[in-house]
Design a protein that fits this description.
The complex is a heterotrimer of chains A (289), B (425) and C (350). With 289 residues, chain A is an all-alpha fold. In chain A, 72% of the residues lie in helices and 3% in strands. Chain A has a two-stranded antiparallel sheet. In chain A, 57% of the residues are buried. Chain B is elongated and about 70 Å long. In chain B, the strands form five sheets. Chain B has a five-stranded parallel sheet with strand order 4-1-5-6-7, with helices on both faces. In chain B, helix 3 runs parallel beside helix 4 and helix 14 crosses helix 15. In chain C, helix 2 runs antiparallel to helix 8, helix 4 crosses helix 11 and helix 12 packs across helix 13. Classes of the chains: A mainly alpha (289), B alpha/beta (425), C mainly alpha (350). Chains A and B meet through helix 1, strand 2 and helix 10 of A and strand 9, helix 9 and helix 10 of B.
């Protein structure tokens, strides 16, 4: 049972981390609570499905196209919908909710409420420490690791990363130092959505694709991000694995209560918040009253 | 566009009806088809009814007394999967604005209960074709005067589903004993967390040991869970030979897919609503080989009644897929037609006694209502089918000599070869 | 006697003239209320009645969100919790003990209020986005608990077969509309009272409010309790009207709905969310009158909300109000836009 929990938590934690880090990034830099974050993830899953199964494009091309198109779309959405109302925090919030609903309804109209499945990228499975894992799950862990390392490199060792971190640290000072804060925000949106799109692409063959698939992970990543501390990438990473392991432990120790895994994860979040109101690694923004 | 919208809204406000009366000798009979039209369930509600209505209208319509009246279907999108109040609103709109005479359909039980109350307020005959819960017809027994206008046409109500399930489980258990040489097959129960499964799960825990099988555990994921690898690992460790599924949500697809990917050496059988749909094979990425479930119509090669094969073939020709169980609206429309012709009126109070005496062979079996207006289950009545996915095809394997019932076209059940390889002593 | 009566009428008229007719926004609200009250004289179409009953219920719900989120700044993302508590509370009492809806509805509201306090206590430590995202969790946790006890809660079926308040649609209509008008008036009065001012102060600057000797914790809890109470009444009425209380009353979608109505109408106004509900709810239903548009209705709704926000980022009613009224620069009271001098302090406007 111990190995089962270990492996299951690792796979799910990786996927959650991809989603949560993107969400956290854009909050940290631009203070945008992007409810449409997982809607972009859903969009990427649908695009891969369309390119692969309907247009019959090769795998790699489909994946690259899907991630590219979704990222592009996110920048267009940012310019058209978010930037004009950025001064009004509540308007930004509702704009992202509306965006998510628009994606959901559009997909519902085009594809109907059918459950769709993408073909597995690599079929087969193997035994890992006595636990059977499919190659698709291993691939997911690999991709997650590579992408997370890439993101870390981008943020820690490039000029853009420096700008993003500076803006996240203190928006006003960054602005005074002559940084184009609005442009940095747009790039951050692009990076954050690209992470969501990659998650959608690797997850599509594991899960089922449907127009409501954005809701369940949305709640999970909100829990993760709050638990880890809003805007803290390290917090999101650790939070993702905490939630994933809590869920795995629930399923394995209380089989008849597997449906409770979401509720248990959310309760953990509330408990953490009661002890540390700014999350595990969050910064208390005292000055932002 | 905008003008029309305004005009219609004003008309709606004024309480006048929008319908333009067709230039016909007699007014058509209006039937509201209620369902979540953006989803597969509603789509099949509509298609089944559309086929029946077109056939009846081509043959001249429904004979009411001396008049020949055509059927006019009204598509009522209830949006019930997403929003329950919407469903009740839609029912009220259909009855008071679209002026439908009858309503057929319904899917999500919570919404159907709400819609049932609206229909009963207006004393409209409501033929349920989609929700299985016993409570729907139970209300008829509790408060007959109010709920007598409701008839549960399809599918088999959930308490009867249990009986079918155990009959099939017995057959599969026998096969495991024979082919794998296991005296006491082990069964893991995987039921989604929902109220409708509780009765079946309790019955399974009580009955399976009596049938010579061992229950190794109960797992209850959420109906919309996107991952059951954790549950599957635990089930594999428990050494289960069968996974008894009681699932209506998309977790059924995930289960089929992940079982295939992880080559879990067990046979999944039970209720798996998603596996009844033709899109299941595709949705599971072609991984769900050997998944088995109860079904209504099969893939068109099983002869349940004289009408089944022709209906499924016509449906497939017209829409390109086989019908899902909510296409039972087809039979419901015919049921209504025959009752109206017999009564010579569309008056609901006169139709109820006639519908109560229904004895009709439809596409999925013989329909006779019990005293609660629910369909009678058993040999000679409705039995249902059990199917297994074999290399992309839905293959019916039950009833095969069950209480003297064998449907023409059933084929043998297959135990997955990888399971044979892993489990054979 | 007659003198007293004429006095009352005159006094009432003066009140109306100075407090209501002097401001176009209040005149519009009064006219709207009168239209709702007189509508059954024009048509008693049951479908029309149903739409307005639902809109009234959701108006109470949206306004109660505004009391908490708009005024006090506790942007609640899980407002459906209070709605669901009211709905489940009153239906369980009705179902298990056969109590009359007249008793169960207030008790349902009290249960919701208790829920409000319970949620409010951990939320005292949270602020801003943390609070929003944490509150999202509460209705989901409650859903999990309800599903764990299906014999008690009915699981995914909910509790059905509850008694209706009245049988005839018109009676239900008046019950809903009058309830909505009274409750919303009370909420508006609270928001303009001393307490409302403190709520406002907490939103603007909690530290400063505390520094002025205000027990902000107590007031925040009060805001949670009040808001939950009103939302609970809405939920209880909803359950007794639609005759079922199911898990859909706790869904994330319903919580988001409250946020959409609130922000679309304009926060910290009370009447904004009400106006938003009475525009958006009938609008989606009006779209559904057309069979060919039925499947597009949510899409149309989302696009409308988005477009309106792009042009009126503060919401619909503040934008409209600023067009027809202006603020006196000296005494901060509102005036009709055409007045040259303030109606209170006679300072020249502009």
């Amino acid at each position: 049972m111990f190995q089962d929990i270990l492996i299951t938590g690792l796979v799910n934690g990786g996927v959650y981390a991809l989603l949560a880090i993107g969400f956290s990034l854009i909050f940290g830099v631009a203070r945008i609570v992007n409810i449409a974050h997982t809607a972009f993830y859903m969009l990427a899953a649908y695009l891969v499905y369309t390119f692969l199964n309907i247009a019959g494009l090769p795998l790699l091309l489909s994946v690259v196209l899907a991630v590219g198109l979704v990222t592009l779309l996110s920048m267009v959405c940012y310019k058209l919908v978010i930037e004009p109302v950025r001064e009004y925090e509540s308007a930004v919030l509702i704009a992202t909710i509306a965006l998510a609903l628009i994606f959901q309804e559009t997909l519902l109209l085009i594809f109907g409420g059918h459950f769709l499945g993408s073909p597995t990228l690599i079929p087969g499975n193997m035994d890992l420490a006595g636990v059977r894992v499919s190659y698709q799950q291993l691939l997911t862990i690999g991709v997650v690791a590579v992408v997370l390392l890439g993101t870390w490199y981008l943020l820690a060792h490039t000029r853009l990363g420096l700008a993003i971190r500076a803006t996240a640290n203190d928006l006003e000072v960054a602005n005074l130092m002559g940084m184009n804060v609005s442009r940095v925000a747009m790039y951050t949106v692009a990076i954050s959505v690209a992470l969501a799109a990659i998650a959608g692409v690797v997850v599509a063959p594991l899960f089922v694709v449907d127009p409501l698939m954005w809701l369940a992970p949305l709640v999970t990543i909100l829990a993760i991000v709050v638990l880890g501390g809003l805007g803290s990438l390290k917090g999101s990473l650790i939070g993702a694995f905490i939630i994933a392991y809590v869920e795995a432990i629930t399923v394995f120790t209380v089989p008849a209560g597997a449906f409770l895994k979401g509720a248990v994860a959310l309760s953990i979040m509330i408990i953490v918040l009661l002890i540390r109101p700014e999350g595990l690694f969050g910064v208390a923004f005292e000055e932002e009253r | 566009m905008l003008r029309r919208m305004l005009a219609a809204f004003v008309a709606a406000l004024a309480g006048t009806t929008l319908t333009v009366t067709a230039a016909q000798a007699a007014d058509p009979i209006k039937i509201g088809i209620v369902g979540p039209m953006a989803f597969v369930q509603g789509e099949n509600h509509w298609r089944g009814a559309e086929m029946a209505a077109d056939e009846i209208n081509q043959a001249g319509g429904i004979k009411v007394g001396k008049e020949q009246r055509k059927i006019e279907l009204v598509k009522v999108d209830t949006n019930e999967i997403l929003n329950v109040p919407d469903a009740a609103n839609a029912m009220e709109r259909a009855i008071t604005q679209d002026k439908v005479d009858f309503v057929i359909g319904g899917f999500r039980t919570e919404a159907v209960l709400a819609m049932q109350d609206v229909a009963m307020d207006y004393k409209k005959i409501f033929l349920g074709a989609g929700a299985a819960h016993d409570q729907l017809s139970g209300r008829v027994g509790q408060d007959y005067e109010r709920y007598k206008y409701f008839f549960h046409v399809a599918p088999t109500k959930s308490s009867d589903l249990g009986k079918t399930l155990f009959a099939v489980l017995g057959q599969i258990g026998g096969q495991i004993r024979q082919d794998l040489g296991k005296d006491k097959p082990k069964v893991a129960i995987m039921a989604e967390k929902a109220a409708w499964v509780d009765g079946i799960v309790k019955a399974a825990q009580a009955n399976l040991p009596k049938m010579g099988m061992e229950v190794v555990g109960l797992w209850q994921p959420s109906p919309t869970a996107t991952d059951v690898t954790a549950e599957l690992s635990a089930i594999r460790r428990a050494g289960a030979d069968m996974i008894f599924t009681v699932i209506s949500g998309p977790v059924g697809i995930v289960l089929g897919r992940q079982m295939g990917e992880l080559q879990v050496p067990a046979i999944p059988f039970g209720i798996n609503v998603e596996a009844q749909k033709e899109g299941f094979w595709q949705a599971s990425g072609g991984k769900a080989n050997y998944v088995a479930t109860l079904d209504t119509f099969g893939a068109g090669d099983v002869h349940i009644t004289d009408k089944t094969v022709e209906f499924v073939a016509n449906f497939k020709k017209r829409y390109g897929t086989t019908p899902a169980y909510t296409a039972a609206t087809y039979d419901a429309v015919y049921l209504l037609k025959e009752a109206i012709e017999q009564a010579g009126t569309t008056d609901a109070d006169k139709l109820v006694p006639i519908l109560e005496k229904t004895d009709r062979v439809g596409t999925a079996g013989r329909l006779v209502f019990d005293k609660n207006h629910a369909p009678t289950f058993g040999p000679g009545y409705l039995t249902g089918l059990a199917i297994q996915w074999q290399d992309g095809q839905k293959v019916a394997f039950w009833p095969n000599n069950w209480n003297g019932v064998t449907y023409k076209g059933v084929k043998p059940f297959k135990i997955p070869p990888h399971m044979m390889a892993q489990k054979k002593n | 006697m007659i003198n007293a009566l004429t006095y009352l009428i005159r006094r009432g008229y003066t009140q109306l003239r100075t407090e209501v007719f002097s401001l176009p926004s209040r005149t519009i609200m009064l006219v709207g209320a009168l239209v709702l009250l007189l509508l059954p004289l024009y048509s008693t179409d049951p479908y029309l009645m149903r739409i307005i009953i639902m809109a009234s219920i959701f108006a109470i719900f949206a306004a109660s969100w505004d009391l908490l989120a708009g005024f006090t700044g506790q942007v609640n993302f899980g407002h459906a919790l209070f709605f669901g508590l009211g709905a489940y509370g009153s239906s369980l009492l009705n179902h298990h003990f056969g109590l009359s809806p007249w008793i169960t509805m207030p008790i349902g509201a009290v249960i919701a209020t208790l829920g409000g306090v319970l949620v409010g206590i951990p939320c005292l430590r949270l602020r801003g986005s943390y609070l929003s995202l944490a509150t999202l969790a509460f209705p989901l946790i409650l859903t999990g608990i309800l599903f764990a006890f299906p014999e008690f809660s009915g699981g995914e079926l909910g509790i059905s077969g509850i008694r209706r308040l009245f049988v005839k649609p018109v009676h239900n209509y008046y019950a809903a509309v009058i309830l909505m008008l009274v409750l919303c008036f009370i909420m508006w009065k609270i928001s303009t009272s001393n307490t409302g001012l403190i709520f406002h102060a907490i939103r603007e600057d909690e530290v400063a409010a505390r520094a002025s000797g205000i027990n902000t914790k107590r007031y925040k809890l009060l805001a949670f309790a009040l808001s939950a109470f009103f939302a609970g009444i809405a939920g209880a009425f909803f359950a007794h009207f639609i005759r079922i209380a199911g898990p859909s009353t706790l869904e994330v979608a319903l919580s988001f709905q409250a946020v959409i109505w609130g922000i679309f109408g304009g926060v910290a106004t009370i009447y904004g969310p009400i106006v938003a509900v009475f525009i958006l709810y009938p609008l989606t239903e009006a779209v559904a009158v057309f069979p060919e548009l039925r499947e597009f209705r949510l899409l149309i709704l989302a696009v409308v909300v988005l477009l309106v926000l792009l042009f009126m980022p503060q919401g619909l009613t503040p934008w409209l109000r600023d067009k027809i009224e202006s603020i006196c620069q000296r005494c901060k009271n509102r005036n009709v836009f055409w007045r040259r001098e303030c109606r209170i302090c006679s300072t020249a406007m502009h």
